[in-house]
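R.M. (postdoc): so does anyone remember the format we settled on? I'll just put the structure tokens first.
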């Protein structure tokens, strides 16, 4: 379906052309004065210089051609040359009926669907998820869902930190604690045990212990570096241990991401790119892209238009060791080979921007990607506490994500039980659903690149611009539709008719905007635009609800129309929260 605003614009273009003016002047926008009109066109202002004519005269010419058009309730020229528009109730109702009949609620699928790889998550194995992992996971998940809704093939990759010194540290610490394990016997030729010699809890304690020792003991650190090298060179026992570390960590990570309603198609990591590094390094050398600088292998990536210094992209350190640059470039090579993506999106802390500028430029310069392959960086800001500093526990440490989720769920459980709206056996499940909306909406309603304050009290409120408020609105609609069904009537029958009140028309206008929001939100990688939309939509519905006795209406034609309007509002709101990565309960 065409966007509602495009339908208006088409008529405006015909009127401009019929008046002898360029139809490019017929751009229509939402009114910035909703007290005066619903839409506006300022093309006459732009046309004044072109046609050497007062803008009000141009506006009047156009308005004259629009008189009697069924799309408009009113259209008028206003000094100094604005065209103010109110759409007809009949045209608006017809558009919403078309939305109800469309399985995609008026949103057109892309006519040129892309294959997109989205890199989000990025946790290190052997370490628990903490609040610093929250934004990447939920912003990335929302972008993935939006892309799929629009018909793109979107492949989500967690991209684990699973290769490097942290592995050497864990292996070294294990060798001190359990030297008798067969993994440390270089001469051992048998099969290694299937069960890991540690639990996830033990693993999460081993890594920080080993990291602390390496900072204080140079010999310990050298042992860890040697273990890392031997692992990467393929030592059997160390590879078997690495597999145990991966299996135990990934099982725990999946459990925690599941609580966030976040899913990945690929569980690849830096280790998967390791095999691509030797050929990539040879290619960069042989084709003159890379050169030695003080022993390190680098690629120049600065450009004439740079306003600040962009250092060379280092491929190998002077001792031959690889870096994040190396594995990220090798991962691009792997992704191009495996999926031939039209775009690769990285959802990462915005402080990593320079790193990705270097990597992207190097990949383009060395022709590692196709000319038209997009490389996109979605940099997110910091999640802060009320003190304006990065969010911490009350004790001042980094908060585990699991603990944050539990605290939010407990808060929601208390509120739901106090409200007495849900029976005890369902209260816990409902609290988890509402709690997830509080976390996700609280984050996603902010522009990704901005820092924001994670305010538990505000985010869990049932009032204001919050996830629970959005869910409460959906549950309210579900309750009305359920009672209508109990009356023996079918909410799927009938049509939306012309609005009979200002609040009803305002709700209808908000619903008509749905397909104008989703496409731009995805193109701009901006889930906050969906949040803004559903907050306005929820407000419009609640204004209509408080002014209208929907089920008490005696005129069955009116009542049926309102019920159909509620069905559409529910479907649009549920689609939007699905794109944000949460869902609504039946009651709350």
């Amino acid at each position: 379906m065409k966007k509602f605003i495009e339908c208006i614009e088409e008529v405006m273009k015909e009127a401009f052309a019929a008046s002898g003016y360029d139809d490019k002047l017929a751009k229509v926008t939402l009114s910035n004065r909703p007290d005066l009109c619903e839409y506006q066109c300022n093309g006459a202002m732009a046309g004044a210089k072109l046609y050497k004519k007062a803008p009000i005269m141009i506006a009047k010419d156009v308005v004259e051609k629009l008189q009697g058009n069924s799309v408009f309730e009113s259209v008028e020229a206003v000094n100094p040359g604005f065209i103010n528009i109110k759409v007809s109730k009949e045209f608006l109702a017809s558009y919403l009926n078309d939305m109800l009949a469309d399985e995609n609620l008026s949103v057109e699928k892309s006519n040129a669907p892309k294959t997109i790889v989205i890199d989000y998550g990025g946790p290190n194995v052997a370490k628990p998820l903490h609040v610093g992992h929250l934004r990447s996971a939920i912003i990335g998940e929302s972008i993935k869902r939006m892309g799929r809704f629009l018909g793109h093939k979107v492949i989500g990759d967690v991209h684990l930190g699973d290769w490097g010194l942290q592995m050497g540290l864990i292996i070294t610490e294990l060798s001190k604690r359990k030297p008798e394990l067969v993994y440390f016997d270089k001469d051992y030729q048998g099969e290694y045990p299937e069960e890991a010699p540690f639990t996830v809890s033990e693993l999460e304690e081993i890594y920080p212990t080993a990291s602390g020792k390496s900072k204080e003991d140079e010999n310990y650190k050298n042992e860890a570096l040697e273990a890392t090298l031997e692992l990467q060179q393929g030592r059997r026992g160390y590879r078997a241990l690495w597999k145990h570390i991966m299996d135990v960590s990934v099982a725990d990570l999946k459990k925690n991401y599941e609580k966030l309603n976040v899913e990945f198609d690929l569980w690849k990591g830096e280790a998967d790119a390791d095999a691509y590094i030797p050929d990539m390094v040879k290619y960069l050398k042989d084709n003159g892209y890379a050169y030695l600088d003080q022993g390190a292998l680098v690629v120049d990536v600065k450009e004439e238009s740079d306003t600040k210094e962009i250092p060379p992209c280092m491929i190998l350190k002077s001792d031959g060791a690889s870096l994040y640059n190396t594995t990220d470039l090798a991962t691009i090579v792997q992704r191009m080979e495996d999926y031939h993506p039209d775009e690769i999106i990285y959802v990462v802390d915005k402080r990593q921007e320079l790193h990705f500028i270097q990597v992207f430029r190097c990949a383009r310069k060395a022709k590692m990607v196709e000319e038209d392959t997009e490389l996109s960086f979605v940099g997110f800001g910091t999640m802060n506490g009320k003190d304006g500093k990065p969010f911490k526990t009350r004790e001042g440490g980094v908060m585990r994500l699991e603990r944050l989720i539990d605290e939010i769920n407990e808060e929601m459980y208390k509120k739901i039980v106090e409200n007495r709206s849900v029976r005890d056996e369902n209260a816990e499940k409902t609290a988890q659903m509402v709690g997830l909306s509080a976390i996700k909406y609280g984050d996603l309603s902010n522009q990704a690149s901005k820092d924001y304050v994670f305010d538990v009290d505000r985010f869990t409120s049932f009032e204001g611009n919050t996830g629970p408020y959005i869910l409460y609105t959906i549950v309210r609609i579900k309750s009305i539709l359920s009672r209508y069904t109990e009356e023996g009537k079918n909410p799927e029958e009938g049509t939306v008719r012309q609005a009979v009140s200002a609040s009803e028309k305002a709700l209808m206008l908000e619903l008509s905007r749905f397909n104008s929001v989703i496409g731009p939100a995805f193109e701009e990688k901006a889930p906050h635009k969906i949040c803004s939309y559903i907050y306005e939509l929820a407000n419009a519905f609640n204004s209509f609800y408080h002014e209208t006795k929907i089920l008490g209406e005696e005129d069955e034609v009116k009542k049926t129309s309102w019920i159909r309007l509620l069905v559409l509002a529910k479907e649009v709101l549920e689609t939007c929260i699905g794109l944000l990565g949460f869902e609504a309960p039946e009651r709350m």
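R.M.: ...and that's the designed sequence above, right after the tokens. Also worth knowing: The first strand starts at residue 28 and ends at 30. The chain is about 50% helix and 10% strand.
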